[in-house]
Structures are given as C-alpha cells and as structure tokens.
UniProtKB/TrEMBL annotation:
PROSITE patterns: CSA_PPIASE_1, CSA_PPIASE_2. Residues 27-216 form the PPIase cyclophilin-type domain. GO terms for molecular function: isomerase activity. InterPro entries: Cyclophilin-like_dom_sf (IPR029000), Cyclophilin-type_PPIase_CS (IPR020892), Cyclophilin-type_PPIase_dom (IPR002130), Cyclophilin_A-like (IPR044666). CDD domains: cyclophilin (cd00317). This is peptidylprolyl isomerase. Pfam families: Pro_isomerase. Coiled coil: none annotated.
Amino acid sequence: MIKNWKKIGLLVCSTLLFTVVLAKTPKYHYVSLKTDRGDCLLRLYNETPKHRDNFVKLVKEGYYDELMFHRVIQNFMVQGGDPNSRYAAQKQALGEGGPAYKIPAEIQEGLIHKKGSIGAARDNNPAKQSSASQFYLVQGRVFTPAALDSLEEFRLNGKKLTAHQREVYTTIGGTPHLDGNYTVFGELLNGIEAIDKIAVVETDERDRPLEDIRMSMKLLTRREALNLERELEGLSPKTDFLTKVLDIFYSRYY
C-alpha cells in the first residue's frame, strides 16, 4: 500500500513538473495604462525587444505611476514619461528627465505611426537612440491621398510611402512623417478615446496641459495575458480550479 502511494505521489509530481516545463507563455506583453481621461490597454511588439523589455522593467518598478502627460499636441500625439513631472510645479518646463542610458534604435519598416501606436521619444542624436523612459501615443489624423502626395513631395523629400502606409493613413490615420525616424514599439488594443480626450485639453506655450493629467501602469500577469489572448481569439478565459492550482507553480510574469 505504501509503495502504491509512493508511486502515485511520484506520478503526480512528475505530471506537475512536466506541466510546468511545458507552461504556455503569452504571445505578447500587455500593459494596462490608466489616465485621468480614461483607461487603455497596450500590446508591446516582439519585433522591438530592447524597447519592450525596458518598458516592461520600468512598468514593473512602478516608474510611470503618477507621472504626467507633459506634452500634448492635438492631431499629433500625447507624450509622457519624464520622471521630473511627478512633483513638477505649475508652468515648470518638462521633457528633459529620464534614466541616464538610451535604448538603441529598433526602427522597423512595417511598424508605423498609425493612430494608437506607442513610440519612443528621443533627442536629435544621429543614431536615433531612444529615451529610456519618455514615450508618446499617436493621435494623428486621417489623410486624403492628395495630402499624402503632398507630404511625399514637400516633407519627405520625394520618398514614397508604401501601399501599406497609404492604406493605414487614409483609413485609421496617424503621423506618417515620423516613420523611419522614431522607434514604434507597441499599439493600443483599446482606449483610443482616452488619447482623443487628452489631446484636446488646453495647453501652454510649451504644449504642457494647464491641468495636470497623470497616469499609472500595470503589467498584465502571465494568466491575465493568456486569458486576454483567449478572449481575442473568441475563447472563454480559463478560471477553473485546476488552472488556479497549476498557476501556483508558474512564474507570475514571463
């Protein structure tokens, strides 16, 4: 009898170990972004791993909590991530703060500045390295084909947009003149209305909102991300007892 129980115990342990080893990992990292004008959900791109991993690290540390959107331009973008904004006085100039390091550029031709994209802010360094913390969310606008023709001729110095860019910018909209110059590393899955609400607030001569608009962020856990991906595929989230027990053996994040 004792030998049988030992065998059962070994079988259970082996099964659990095998399950943990083969634990399913979410396809992407997701970040919940809460603002004073509404909430958003971000999906980070795997094609830009340096930016993704840095952003995940800062979010997990609570770096962005209580920071402001310090630069807002309607029909263009809303920008935040300056740590100096957490305790900034009224009318204080912002936009220079952040960690001492930069992120190497990961500019990808197919990752463009469509409405709802998140991009990394930067200074005028020739390597186009990104700020380690400052980011912007694209609002932009919808363009007519004629407006894109004009953009190509006068702002892009004759460089032609791809068919994909033209389709996106004449339907979803965005800021095409930023393509190729800044790293886009994710996009909103929902909550674009919050960006539209932030973009229309009254600002001062430095484009800082007259009323402080703050943010907080949370990285979705492994289970939250898996259930989100199931829902996006039209499946029900897994919340059964066995799933909860097995999740005890997995890392909270991934």
